[in-house]
Amino acid sequence: MKQIIAIAGLFAAGVAQAQVSSQRVGNQTYYSDGTTATKVGNQTYFSDGTTAQQVGNQTYYSNGTTAQQVGNQTYYSNGTTAQQVGNATYYSNGRICQTVGTHRYCN
């Protein structure tokens, strides 16, 4: 779930349109585009100034985007959906992300 929130944060912020990979180290996530995210409790702070707060199965982003996770599906208020299948996440906009250990790769 942490990786989905982190990647979702980039989608919510409109950053993740190019190929992006990430690596999680403890409560930090480092993205190949230079963005970083720090998770503290239920809050995630992105280096671009975006924040996210997780409350139950809902995530609220400071830019107004919300996400709701239901089972292996995530629904974003901007119309994007994501489905988690094993170590892969399939987004309705054609993006596919795969997690291998602490690394996450997206097309």
Helix/strand layout:
Elements (H helix, E strand, L loop, with lengths): L1 H12 L7 E5 L2 E4 L4 E5 L2 E4 L4 E5 L2 E4 L4 E5 L2 E4 L4 E5 L2 E4 L4 E5 L2 E4 L1
Antiparallel strand pairs: 1-2, 1-12, 2-3, 3-4, 4-5, 5-6, 6-7, 7-8, 8-9, 9-10, 10-11, 11-12
Explained architecture:
By secondary structure, the protein is mainly beta. The chain has one domain (2-106). It is 11% helix and 50% strand. The protein has 1 helix and 12 strands, in the order H-E-E-E-E-E-E-E-E-E-E-E-E. The chain has one helix spanning 2-13, and strands spanning 21-25, 28-31, 36-40, 43-46, 51-55, 58-61, 66-70, 73-76, 81-85, 88-91, 96-100, 103-106. Strands 1-2-3-4-5-6-7-8-9-10-11-12 form a 12-stranded antiparallel barrel. A hairpin with a 4-residue loop joins strand 4 (43-46) and strand 5 (51-55). The radius of gyration is 12 Å and the shape is globular. The chain starts with a helix and ends with a strand. The model has no long low-confidence stretch (mean pLDDT 88).
State the helix count. 1
Rounded to the nearest angstrom, the distance between the terminal CA atoms is 19 Å
Mean pLDDT: 88
**Rg measurement, Å:** 12 Å
Number of strands: 12
Number of structural domains: 1
Largest sheet: 12 strands, antiparallel, barrel
Shape: globular
Q: Which stretches are low in confidence, meaning pLDDT under 50 for 5 or more residues running?
A: none
Report strand order across the widest sheet.
Answer: 1-2-3-4-5-6-7-8-9-10-11-12
In terms of DSSP E residues, the strand content is over 45%
Q: Percent of residues in helical segments?
A: 10-25%
Structural class: mainly beta
SSE ordering: HEEEEEEEEEEEE
